[in-house]
Amino acid sequence: MKAIAEFQKSLDKKLLFILGILCVTSLVAIYSSQQTGQYGTTNFALQQGINYIIGIVLLLLVASMDIDQIQKLAWPFYIAAFASIVILRILPVSKFTPEILGAKRWFRFGSLAIQPSEFFKIALVILIASLAVNHNAKYIVRTFKTDLLLVGKIALVAIPPSLFVYQQPDTGMVFLYASATACIIFMSGIQKKLIALLTVVPTVIMTTLIYIYFEYPSILFKKLIPLLKPHQQSRILGWLAPFDYTDQGYQTQQSILAVGSGGMEGKGIGHGSVYIPEKHTDFIFATIAEDGGFIFAAFIVFIFLLLIYRIIIVGYEADNLFGTLLCAGAIGILALQIFQNIGMIVGLMPVKGISLPFLSYGGSSLFSNMMLIGLILSVRKTYKKYMFSVS
């Protein structure tokens, strides 16, 4: 009983309070989304409540571990997660490995669907953080060569699984892996000139594409976009010109309409009238903006900023590099998810299958994000324990 009491006391109450706000918002918004009548008799709000209960259990299990234990599990967890992705790729389409909307991303056990790539992001963060810590301990004198060696090690464990996930296809998840990896590399202490070298190529590519879009749009639309896969073409066209390509941009048009129709104060819970396919999943923020208006939508954005800020504080106060890098990887994943999802709702970003953390309906996404917060709580708990032992 004393151990349980100490564990409860060690948990970051501020972080848990933020999660509580997001949990309630998720359940209410999913319930409201169902009122448009496109979901039949399925009670997604109730199922999300069950998902949250499972997610809390996973969060507490991860949080109960010390980060030293977590680091020791880096390779076993990575191998198991990578193997599940490979097995999913190899197995033929069946009830156990269904293909949904052209994507093969899930293992299905009855009514339960598990997406291995969601859990792999946790394994990748832990392993890359561990690699960086061990590398820095081995090469105390940092040089350009040793830092480049670290980047090479990270690339070897990050690129192969990313290619498998890209083939599912799930480009959005690959971007999450890249974001987490980039944040950890940046915080690992590598030399600035190497950081500049790593960023120059993507910066040049993005700058060139932006220039072509404004100066030579015909080249972009007629020469470059057709080189992409059909589903990627559809999303890019629907993003760049949603009102010209009405079929491809239908979800973007509807989400913008939903957000705009909410006005300042919103229509109220259950009174949203704008139809958006799968509104309770990736487009849940459209429901929030339509029902709660600009005021509540801005409040939710503020809550997400508090979440990121709290993780930054935990990472900053951590007394070891591994804990700091775990927080950096978590920030990379959550920040990109939030920016991409809300951005696509208001037409600033292309539509991607990236859920809004802790708000969108779904099991695997919620479970993996709760485990991610469990890692942060573990970092905080371990830090507080060390502080107590020192005092």
From TrEMBL:
Pfam families: FTSW_RODA_SPOVE
PROSITE patterns membership: FTSW_RODA_SPOVE
Major localisation: membrane
Membrane spanning residue stretches: 15-32, 44-63, 75-92, 112-134, 146-166, 172-190, 195-214, 283-309, 321-339, 359-379
Compartmental location: Membrane
InterPro entries the record matches: Cell_cycle_FtsW-rel_CS, FtsW/RodA
Topology in the lipid bilayer: Multi-pass membrane protein
Highest taxon of the lineage: Bacteria
Entries under PANTHER family matching the protein: CELL CYCLE PROTEIN, PEPTIDOGLYCAN GLYCOSYLTRANSFERASE MRDB
Protein name: FtsW/RodA/SpoVE family cell cycle protein
